[in-house]
Design a protein that fits this description.
The chain has 9 helices and 5 strands. By secondary structure, the protein is of the alpha/beta class. α5 links the parallel β3 and β4. The N and C termini lie far apart (64 Å). InterPro entries: SIS_dom, SIS_dom_sf, SIS_Kpsf.
């Protein structure tokens, strides 16, 4: 029989998953790779993943791009049909795979390394002993929380933690590069956030 959850139980499980994100992850190494390859080396951050993990990867890429770190999402399957040509030697890649065994992502690493053997990879995963973990430069573990799902299958807590790990990297890099209200306003012309960022730009900053 499938497990039934109350709303408070779902909330508690999601919160507990965030509390148990491993603090021993080498966040500094991941941040350093992004800074070195994108902000110092002129490359871009490429994110990738399949299914729900891919949707999280896409969101991380757009958030990075809007906060001063050029990034884009590369679909692992489309990469095999020509999109791999978007990758440059100076780039760094952030992969997301809960199992660490996703076939398309494993193939993406192999194909990319065939072009650029030294291109670095960061991985967000629930399985730090997985095949993907053996191939990348930095592994960030989610802690592999159990999914809050009557069937125990649907990505719920895992995608919550993946999103937070992405936020951790985004905010850390923003702080390291000194991203300002003025910088934000240049990338957000329309909408509420664009208006708000322009309101917060000081006259001194606007002259720069």
């Amino acid at each position: 029989m499938s497990k039934q959850y109350t709303i408070p139980e779902i909330l508690s499980a999601e919160i507990e998953a965030l509390r148990t994100i491993p603090q021993e992850n080498d966040y500094e190494a991941a941040i350093r790779l992004i800074l070195e390859h994108v902000h110092q080396g002129g490359g871009r951050l490429i994110t990738s993943g399949m299914g729900k993990a891919g949707q999280i990867a896409h969101n991380i890429a757009t958030t990075f791009s809007s906060t001063g770190t050029p990034a884009y999402f590369l679909h692992p399957s489309e990469a095999q049909h020509g999109d791999l040509g978007m990758v440059c030697e100076s780039d760094v890649m952030l992969l997301i795979s809960n199992s660490g065994k996703t076939r398309e992502v494993l193939e993406l690493v192999a194909l990319t390394r065939r072009m650029y053997p030294r291109l670095p990879f960061i991985l967000i995963t629930g399985n730090s002993e997985s095949p993907l973990s053996q191939l990348v430069d930095v592994t960030l573990s989610t802690g592999n929380p159990a999914e809050v799902c009557p069937l125990g299958l649907t990505p719920t807590t895992s995608t919550t933690v993946m999103t937070v790990l992405g936020d951790l990297l985004v905010v850390s890099v923003m702080q390291r590069i000194g991203f300002t209200y003025h910088d934000y306003s240049l990338r957000h012309h329309g909408g509420y956030l664009g208006d708000k960022s322009r309101e917060l730009v000081s006259p001194e900053t606007e002259k720069k």
